[in-house]
Fold Putative peritrophin-like protein.
Amino acid sequence: MKMKQLICLTTLVLSVYGAQTSYPFQNQLVTAVQPQPTDVCKAVEAKCTNCTHIGLCTVVGKAPTVIPCTGSTPNCNDRACSAKPSSECSGGTISSFTCPQTDGHYPDPNNCALYHICINKAATDYTCKGNDVYSTFTHSCVRRSVTNPCSTVNCRGKNGQYALYPADNSFAFFCVAEKSTGIMVKCGDNQVYSTEVNLCRPHCTKEGLLPDPDDNKYFIECTLDLGNKFLMRRRECPNTANIKSVFDPVKLECVVTK
């Protein structure tokens, strides 16, 4: 009889507290904080996924990149890694560099004499010597000068946002707690990153035509204006009832579609 009562009591307790990770009748209360499920990013932002991990939403509509908070800032608190835990938790260092999908040479956001070569999404660090700095245009170390200054990313006031790499605006780095992370965007040729729309946009460096990144039926016409500035005009390839064409990004001209 006592055994049946014990079984019934256990069943009742589990039915009430089964979804929780701590029970009030235990001699020592141990609470395990469960990670929140990874969801789709609704905005470019940083957010805590649990007490010790931060999710970096770098692309809207995609799952966040989740990285641990470690070192002197092991807690995630108010969308940033912190030494102090949040009110819901009682408890890093951001990953030094995260290679993008495409292999290549990439600048370091915090050290102008450091760069990273990514092969198969694995980064190897290289350091320039003396007074040299890394150039994204030569993909190598160059002598520091007025035309090749020491460039680092300024994340002040940009928590949970992208900040541009000053020497080359085709690069942008994600900021957390006013510090740049290794999470980055690299725009294609003749493009720069726009922090207003969080997208790569066309950028004229010489007169000619560029592909429109939004619609291949259009192209961008670059013409030199006063003060060595460029005017950008969006034009459409010929498309009528009898002719259908798109802009070829290799030939840089409108071609008839098959």
Summary: The radius of gyration is 26 Å. The mean pLDDT is 78. Residues 2-17 form the longest helix (16 residues).
